[in-house]
Structure formats: C-alpha cells, structure tokens
Amino acid sequence: MSEDILQRLTQTIAARKGAAAETSYVAKLFSKGEDAILKKIGEEATEVLLAAKEGDKNHLVYETADLWFHCMVLLAQHGLKAEDVLTELARREGVSGITEKQSRKQD
User: 52 φ, ψ to 5°?
Assistant: First the structure.
C-alpha cells in the first residue's frame, strides 16, 4: 500500500497538470507557474520547521506530507518523478554523506 503511494501521486499530479485550474488545486499551481510552486514549497518547509519545534509528532508528519507533495509537483513541473529521487537515494545508500558531498564538488 504505502510503497505505491508515490507512484499513484505521481500519476495523479501528471493527470492534473493539464486540467482546468478551476477544477484542481494541482492544475491551479501549474497554471500560476514555477514561482508559485516554489513559494508554496518555502511555506511548507517553514511549517515543517515550526511543527518540529512544537514537538507535535502528528503535526510534523502532516506538514512533512504537505512538503513532499509540493516537491512532487515541482518535480513534475520539470518532467521528473518521485522515482528519480528514489533512484538517487538508492545510489547514495551505503555511501558516507561526507564522501557523497565531496563527490559532487568534483563534478
């Protein structure tokens, strides 16, 4: 069930990308352009920080879900999917964060 949620959300976001802005929140975000999506991600990231500071675990989960969702909308804006991020995380698995970061500096 939870393993498929990212794939289902990716499909839903893609389907709504071309929908009328009046019928879909996602379509409305896309119609406003990337700056609106980026602004929403900034707002959601701030809400995650505030929820963490409050110490309310349920609120933190709720706000993190909002942040992840809006990041998925941004990925779709760029023709990417959650799977692309999961592939990158898999590539990094077992690699020291310090080592991985150093490898990006060499690119």
Answer: -65, -40
Residue type, 54: E
Using CA atoms, how far residue 17 sits from 41, 46, 48, 69, 74, in Å, is 17, 25, 26, 14, 11
Question: Which phi-psi region, left, alpha or beta, contains residue 93 (left: φ > 0; alpha: ψ -120 to 50)?
Answer: beta
pTM summary value: 0.85
The pLDDT value recorded for residue 68 is: 97
Q: Where are the domains of the chain?
A: 5-99
The answer to whether the beta carbons of residues 37 and 70 sit under 8 Å apart is: yes
Cβ partners under 8 Å of residue 55, min gap 6: none
Kindly report the backbone phi and psi dihedral angles of residue 51, in degrees, each rounded to the nearest multiple of 5, phi listed first: -65, -40
Assigned CATH class of 5-99? mainly alpha
